Model the fold of this input.
Amino acid sequence: MSLIFAQARFPAPEFENYTLPEMDLETAVSDPTYLRVAVLAVFLLAAGLAFYRLRSRKLMLALAVAGLTVFGYYFTACPCSVGMFQNIAESAALGTPIPLSVLLLFAIPLATALFFGRLFCAGACPLGAVQELLHWKTLQVPRPLDRVLRMLPIAMCLVFTVMAANGMGLMACYYDPYLPLFLLSFTMPLTGFTVALLLVGLIVSRPFCRYVCPYSVLLRFFAMFAMRKPQITAAPCINCRLCEQGCPNGAIISPETLLPPDVQKHEARRLSTLVALTPFALLLGGMLGYVAATIVSEHHPDVQLLRMLDANEQTLEVEAFESSGTSLTELEQSVAHAHNGIMLGMSVSGIIFAACVMAELIAESRRRKEDDQYTIDGSLCFCCGRCYQSCPLETQGKGRSVTI
Done:
């Protein structure tokens, strides 16, 4: 595919009495991505059956091994779920064509999350499978720090989306651990980042999925509204706390206890304060995004090219521009257009990020319905089945009446 785009970017050399051969791409090139769509659907169905019907941790691990083998090495992790959102953003903003099969690979996991939670993370994502299989001993991340770190992939998703939508390329792919793991492309510092990620993953569950992956932001959002919520057990909870201790991802919600009246009043005041501060937080987020737009725009290729021209640098980019016949006025107009697009995108992204931060704070301060059951936060649950393995009611077969 890269050869086709290269042919469109660089004109063919001029020869006398030579005719370029016609290319019939529709019939000459098959799209193997549809096979991946079909296999993905099968894996998601199997994950749903293993997680909801059979409720088996062992089957989920077996599915992770199969997903790692098939999607990671047989399909060579392409298209990559980590950076695929950039292709969608670029296509939507710039009108670049994108195959239907790629759209399906992007949308099917999200649609599945909307109905059944993050089954893709458990049964089809090869990078998630690597982290799940290598996890050795759980070091629980303190809840406040965990909530702060979960904001990082939201910021990355927003920034990389703005960059892709303004013609700055697929920047997330430069930090994608898929490359050394599945394509065996070893370059520094990416390889060092991947090795560090795997080492941290030995004691911290799924660090990339929880604190880096931009696609996980979308999966988490859709899973928040899932029609079918994960459930530890169908039997009455005995409050043994084993599921809470067994979950390494902080997805178990403990029962809400009755607090003294003075504590309830304090929490109510805190919640009211957060709601009142929300408009100011949105304004601040938009301002910070506007300021950050200047930094982001410096990485735009047209901005860099104009800076090279102003500094009279002799680079390959400058030589290509001078031989292209494009005027300096056209380049300056392109730079101005890029600046405006990035500033608008980053300002909106700042508002969205601030809204996410305030929503997280409000959710932490809001009183839930009083209950004596341990439940699962579907947006944070990776459907790994560890809570089934920890719950004595499940291991004794008393809570297996849950059906998909």
